[in-house]
Design brief:
The complex is a heterodimer. Chain A is of the alpha/beta class. Chain A folds into two domains: about 180 residues, 3-Layer(bba) Sandwich (FAD/NAD(P)-binding domain); about 100 residues, 3-Layer(bba) Sandwich (FAD/NAD(P)-binding domain), CATH 3.50.50.60. Chain A contains seven helices and 17 strands. In chain A, helix 5 packs parallel to helix 6. Chain B has a single domain, classed as Glutaredoxin. Chain B has a five-stranded mixed β-sheet, covered by helices on one side. By secondary structure, chain B is an alpha/beta fold. The model of chain B has no long low-confidence stretch (mean pLDDT about 95). Classes of the chains: A alpha/beta, B alpha/beta. Bound molecules: flavin-adenine dinucleotide.
């Protein structure tokens, strides 16, 4: 009788812990959970790996000298699955209920209600877009968010790089391998990058700077021909001829799903305590979506570990509560 | 070499044969990079939901992929992957750069039916 029930449970949609987000934080949490025999489901709206699949090479993950982000993600996923984690990718969440003892998650185009005693949100972040007219239309037709992917399409062309942080300045320098001229458009009159990145960009003769400036529109027919650039101080807008625009203006946390359910800070990051618990009992958060300063794979996996161990303790004490 | 679970097209001849033999075909022409990997992943997932569509990939840096890179429909493309949707051997839709699952599903539904 006990065995029959157990088998029925295994096929059901009831879990001990559901992890939302299969980036490094979520996959690490899943690894710890399933290794502790906690029945775990990971749900991701995209594919497993999160932002690591946006990274051509990771050279600062201890123990592995160099690895592509894709490979690292693949290993992390395999490792979690080997201990029994189930992973649902390309699954969009329609509804979440967190304020009950048993949490519920309903996916789009799926009749099941997935339940769990605890939920870990490891939602990560995404590239910020400019939000100017026709940005989506010109994606792949002059607008790019990845220099290593698309740089060679701009050989001997004149391009714009938007942003003033490390990514923008480093990618601007790397794009000078292809482009004949790179203009960095940045909203402030100072850069937020490390001094060595600023120095590299400044000494590159192919790079020009337009500070206190922002793009307000992308123009062209089939592909980008020019952008409108506003001088933020004078408010003057001038058209600027360009063949392409690379955008590196930082990241936003993917917390829209939980913005009405969990406490967020002014930057829309989930507020957690040191054990990764949120303001809702049985709900934890980890990785780039929480209130913290350093966003790296190492910090994400550390958060995922802490969240999992806290969730395991919570699940163990669940019955006695 | 593309490390995906999709079927790979390696030569221009193979590409021609596939178009000859199948009514609905989607080909993702890309590299193992950040803008392409999510699109392969989505296609792998959608393969089961669209049994009436054949899904393939082809390596962008394979010289044989000129059959895709030289299509008039991709003339303005400046972002990989190039995704081409063929009906009865004719290009009916093409996209450049990363796409979301919703965008891909909506194109598949539109050009090939659910
Ligand atoms: C271009 C680039 C290069 C980088 N290089 C390095 C590097 O060299 N070294 C390093 O240590 N770090 C690097 N980073 C940072 C590192 O990738 C991140 O810090 C790390 O991936 C964060 O892990 P995470 O699990 O918190 O979030 P993410 O990796 O962002 O994963 C979050 C996951 O949650 C999913 N998700 C989001 N919303 C939902 C939802 N509503 N429902 C379901 N799923 C959802 C997403 O699809 C995603 O898979 C880089 C980042 C970028 C963008």
């Amino acid at each position: 009788m006990y065995l029959e029930n157990k088998n029925a449970m295994d096929k059901s949609t009831d879990y001990d812990v559901i992890v939302v987000g299969a980036g490094p934080a979520g996959l690490t949490a899943a690894l710890y959970l399933s290794r502790a025999k906690v029945k775990t489901l990971v749900i991701d709206s995209g594919i497993a790996g999160g932002q690591t699949i946006l990274t051509h090479e990771i050279a600062n993950y201890p123990g592995i000298e160099r690895i592509s982000g894709y490979q690292l993600a693949h290993i992390m996923k395999k490792q979690a699955e080997s201990f029994g984690t189930e992973i649902k990718i390309n699954a969009e969440i329609e509804r979440i209920v967190l304020d009950r003892r048993i949490k519920e998650i309903k996916l789009k185009k799926n009749e099941n209600i997935y339940t769990a005693k605890a939920v870990i949100f490891s939602l990560g972040g995404r590239s910020r877009t400019i939000g100017a007219t026709k940005e989506e239309y010109f994606k792949g037709k002059g607008i790019s968010y990845c220099a290593t992917c698309d740089g060679d399409f701009f050989t001997d062309k004149e391009i714009v790089v938007v942003g003033g942080g490390n990514s923008a300045l480093e990618e601007a320098v790397s794009l000078t391998k292809y482009a004949s001229k790179v203009t960095i458009v940045h909203q402030f009159d100072y850069f937020q990058a490390f001094p060595h990145a600023i120095e590299e960009a400044k000494k590159n003769t192919k790079i020009n700077f337009m500070l206190n400036s922002r793009i307000t529109a992308f123009n062209g027919d089939e592909k980008i021909e020019s952008v409108d650039i506003e001088n933020i101080k004078t408010k003057e807008i001038t058209p600027f001829k360009t063949d392409g625009v690379f955008i590196f203006i930082g990241y936003l946390p993917n917390t829209e799903l939980v913005e009405h359910a969990l406490m967020l800070n002014e930057w829309k990051e989930i507020i957690v305590k040191s054990d990764m618990s949120t303001n809702v009992e049985g709900v934890y958060a980890a990785g780039d979506c929480i209130n913290k300063k350093i966003r790296q794979v190492t910090t994400a996996v550390a958060d995922g570990t802490v969240a999992a161990l806290s969730a395991i303790e919570y699940v163990m004490n669940f019955k006695s509560k | 070499m593309l490390f995906t679970n999709l079927k790979h097209i390696l030569t221009a001849q193979e590409h021609a044969n596939i178009l000859n033999e199948n009514e609905n075909v989607m080909v993702i022409c890309g590299r193992m990079g950040p803008m392409c990997i999510p699109v392969y992943g989505i296609a792998e997932e959608l393969e089961k939901q669209y049994p009436h569509v054949k899904f393939y990939d082809m390596e962008f840096d394979n010289p044989e992929s000129h059959v895709i890179r030289n299509l008039p429909e991709v003339r303005s493309f400046m972002g990989i992957p190039f995704v081409i949707y063929y009906k009865n051997g004719k290009v009916v839709h093409a996209t450049s750069s990363i796409q979301t699952k919703e965008q891909i599903t909506s194109i598949l539904d539109n050009v090939f039916g659910k």
